Structures are given as structure tokens and as C-alpha cells.
Amino acid sequence: MTSDASYGRVGSYLMDEDGGRLTRLPAPLATSRLLGVTPAGEYVFEAARPRAASPTPAQNESGLTLLKTAKDFSTATDLGFRQAKGLDAGIRLSYLLSPSGRYVVAARLPVPSSAPPSGIWLKDIKTGEEKNILPLSNPGFAGPFVGLVGWLDQ
After folding, report:
1. pLDDT of amino acid 129
2. Does any domain span residue 31?
3. pLDDT at residue 60, rounded to an integer
4. pTM
5. Domain that holds residue 39
6. SS3 for 6?
7. Which of 3, 17, 67, 139 is the most buried (most CB within 10 A)?
């Protein structure tokens, strides 16, 4: 049986490259996934939110969103995709932060379903501009599936 002390250590952590200075993230980031760091040293997370009765356009049905926080976690900004209707319709998304930390890209994970396809979306973190860089317009798309692999060097 897991002890109360073990349950007390559950959460998300940051650490130095050598494993030192293990630091637990504050709520609501304690159950988040770090995507990367911007050039300004801000952190970008996929974070869970309490499930809303009526999710906002920036929130998917499972209550996940993207957050950008200051280095010291004193502020958090919602980076959720707003124009990508149906992008996060209850299906897990795959996010990647660009090497420059300026862009984040999102796509549904490859799951055969009758959910409307969404393609791959790109968001400029600095300006908030969103665009569908690879639209898929055929409902019930059975594959081969589009996946996010990585970024090309410039």
C-alpha cells in the first residue's frame, strides 16, 4: 500500500540537468507537462484545469490547456488555441514547442474515429496569431495519420 508520504510527493518537478535542485511546481502546475522554455525563460506547459460546466474555446472537454508562466511562476497566461474549432474535441492532443520558443504546434494524436479532422495548427506565442498549416477536410479520415515529429533547423 502506498503511504501518505508517497502520495504527498506526487506532482511535477523541475530540476537541474544533473538532477540537483529538485523543485516541485505549484498548483495548478503540479499536474502539468512541461513543453519547453521560451527565450525569455518563461515555461510553457500543458496543464490540467478543473473541468468546467461549459468549457471556453481555449479549453478542451478534458480541461487541458496551454499555459505560459513567468520564471518564478508569479504569473500565468493562457495560450489555448481559440480559432482551431474541434481541435481539442475530447481527444488528446500532441503539442511541440519550437526550438526558438516562439511557436507551439498542435495536432490530434492519430486515433481512428468519426471526429472531424483538424490538421496541424501553429500558434505564435508572441503575437497570439494562429493558423492551420495542414488542413484535413475529410471526416472519418482512416489514415495514414498525420503526426508531429519535430522541427527542421533554420
Report:
1. 92
2. yes
3. 44
4. 0.70
5. 4-134
6. helix
7. 67
Give the integer Cα–Cα distance in Å for 120 and 81.
12
Looking at the domain assignment, is residue 10 inside a domain?
yes
Q: Is 34 helix (H, G, I), strand (E, B) or coil?
A: strand
Bridge partners of 84, per DSSP, are none
**Residue spans of beta strands (DSSP E) within the chain:** 13-14, 23-24, 33-37, 43-48, 64-69, 76-78, 93-97, 103-108, 120-124, 130-134
Task: Work out how many domains the chain is built from and give that number.
Answer: 1
The CA distance from 73 to 84, in Å, is 27
- Alpha-carbon separation of residue 123 from 73, 101, 141, 149 (angstroms): 22, 11, 24, 17
Locate 23 and state its grid cell: 523543485
SS3 content of the chain, % helix, strand, coil (to 5): 5, 30, 65
Separation of alpha carbons 152 and 154, rounded Å: 6
Whole-angstrom Cα Rg for the chain = 17
pLDDT, position 59: 45
